Predict the structure.
Amino acid sequence: MPASTQPDVMDKLVSLCKRRGFIFQSSEIYGGTGSVWDYGPLGVELKKNLKDQWWKAMVRMRDDVEGLDAAILMHPKTWEASGHVAGFTDPLVDCKVCKGRFRADKLEDARCPQKPSKRPGEAEQCQLTEPRLFNLMFKTFMGPLEESASTVYLRPETAQGIFVNFLNVQQSTRQKVPFGIAQIGKAFRNEITPGNFIFRTREFEQMEMQFFVEPGKDMEWFEYWKAERLAWHKSLGLAADRLNYHQHAGTELAHYARAAFDIEFDFGGTLGFQEIEGIHNRGDFDLGRHQEYSGKKLEYFDQPNNKRYLPYVIETSVGADRTTLAALVNGYREEVVEGEEEGRTVLGLHPSLAPIKAAVFALTKKEGMPDMAHKIADGLRQYFPVDYDETGSIGKRYRRQDEVGTPFCITVDTESVKDGTVTVRDRDTLKQDRISADAVREYLTERLPG
Ligand code: ATP
């Protein structure tokens, strides 16, 4: 992967996210839960916008993809068939000296807790154990008995809910191959080395789509989805030079995969380019295994050609949290403002992702300004998430909105009360337009996608 050319903004971002209510550590008052995070008032809007953009692009705008919301708990045989019980493992090594625990296949990226921090195994005193395989699935029990017969798993990916429902969806919607099934949902992995904020967590959300195609047409569709998915990330404003394809080759390629590419994003600093989405040609591995383990035929009947076959699957699998982090990192910037001592921090989020689309200010609390500003905010609220603010200097209010990525600020001033006009300030250009208060909704609609 190419080396990062971007600065490391992670620490600043973690602090901004907490201060402004995007993301909090889970159960913080008890000291926190390891690598589990809660989304605050602005974070929940941001992540929801991202998921909505995905759903719109993958389901609403397409005739050939159907939506699904499968349960987290599935029949335990699902995970035997999928290969997760036997093979969803990471090789784990412990250091007997520093008590650190590392992924044997990621030692290059790891740092030992001893100071000065080195790669595990690099310092003379390191004593690493032999790697042992560690299953990443969370186990629990269904029903009152805690015995192996009642073991169930928290799903480590959403995909299996789609495979087991392949025929239910196909028959109920009368879709014909090629077609896809998409869903968004929680997944759980007992990661050995989670971290980097919401980059690798133990509870996260995936947005996955399985596209079922006729064998032989799979590589054509694979190329199609590879291009579509990269274009989607760009449509969210992720900078083109921060995005990259990484091809899986040799041992990296899962035994059942016919081809696999990651879309990587440059998170800056030492984290650099990392996977945000995987695009895989899985052949007929999944439907074949579920057919074998369930004893139920999962073949598709191609009526016009009078033939039956197990479709091949092209999968696109993207993390909602990891992409939210990419959008935050991509948007974060600090700027010097001409003529002002204090600079500004801007979250240059794409308008479709911004948690607040417009903020409405009354310049002062006098001369009927708050009344007029409240009226404008209330009128907009049913169309866009808006914020009303009348506290602090106007400069401070602009800074507060810049820092959370609000694309437009509308100010009611002395002139407004007299002639019914307001100013609208653009977050990125800082340009201000004076327009009629009645035209604000139209002005925003033209400039806010979706
Ligand atoms: P990695 O190599 O980073 O562990 P993976 O190859 O195991 O990822 P997949 O199983 O292909 O990941 O999952 C698809 C997507 O789900 C990833 O591209 C990522 O965006 C997201 N994802 C996977 N594991 C996590 C996690 N622990 N925390 C947050 N997001 C995750």
User: Anything to note?
Assistant: The CA atoms of residues 233 and 288 lie 32 Å apart. The first strand starts at residue 23 and ends at 25.
